[in-house]
What we know:
2 domains, 5-stranded antiparallel beta sheet, Heat Shock Protein 90, transferase, phosphoprotein, elongated
Amino acid sequence: MIKTPRTDARQLRKLNFDLSNYFSNTIIPQLFVDADLILRIFTPPAMRQFSLTYDHVGKNIADIKDNLRYHYVVEDIQEVIKNSNKILEKEVQTTDGQWFQMNIVPYIEHEEKLINGVIITFVDITKRLMALRELEKLNSQYETHKYAIAHDIRQPISAITLIADGLLLAHKKNDSVQFEKWITTLKTSSKSLQSLVEDFTSDGDKNLTNKALNVETICENILTALKVEIKEKKIRITTDLKVRELVFPKSSLRSVLYNLIHNAVKFSDPNKKSTIKITTTVQDEFVVLSVLDNGIGIPLEHQERVFEKALRLSKTIRGTGMGLYVVKKMIEDNAGRIELKSKENEGTTFNLFFKNAI
């Protein structure tokens, strides 16, 4: 068949019709911008990324307002046009908070080996990014819980060791009264240890799920677990709970309170009558839980670093340096925050702000 100008024109019209039909019906946001940065055609879904009407066809892409939180689209187009081997991929966000993978691919006329422009495609990746972020959050929570259980389980074990020494001494002295007291304390510590392990291991992901928890009950369990140390240091504990319930993951709240109360016990001042006060109040949309003590305090120069991972400020008091790191991570992972107020030789206050108050 001999091609004639009429045949070529018919084929060209058909190609143009096919291209226009494709762009009109595809559900993928796409734009065709020529080598002079003129918008030639676009798919209707692309109107989400750009404030487009069909009157914009034939205008410079730089003069068309976009709805992207990304200001280098024109520069990216020019870069791809200059380099025919380059395919550019960027993750960009729209002003309504959606995320897209923007692909800019050169449009090449193969017969003349010329770049006649670019095809810009937007692939919605919002759900994928949200899923990845949720997975990262879960991984972070599990990592924090791993540190928490390793840290929190040390105290009950230390307490049981101390009780064993007391039992041995009472046995040697044939002091049956003291022996029975130590046995009772041992049972209490054992139950506390068992409860701690169950909190961290039972129900899997349910322990990372927010639920309404009784603060008073959790505090009582923690104070029972720390009974030996509190009695030994003659510390007076008081509570003022204007809010008795918090919405928080169970094992996390127990770990947060345990670490703060235990720190207050460990860093009490032996030269004064030690007190620890636990309070809850409402402040705007937050419930604020505070742990106040009159202990040795934290020097000003160290206060910004106390939440660092594995940081130990005291070489004479036993610890891993993980407690406050775990507390801060757990609070922030659940949309809260923590504030520290402390003065050396006067005491320390930790204020925890729980976003999901009830």
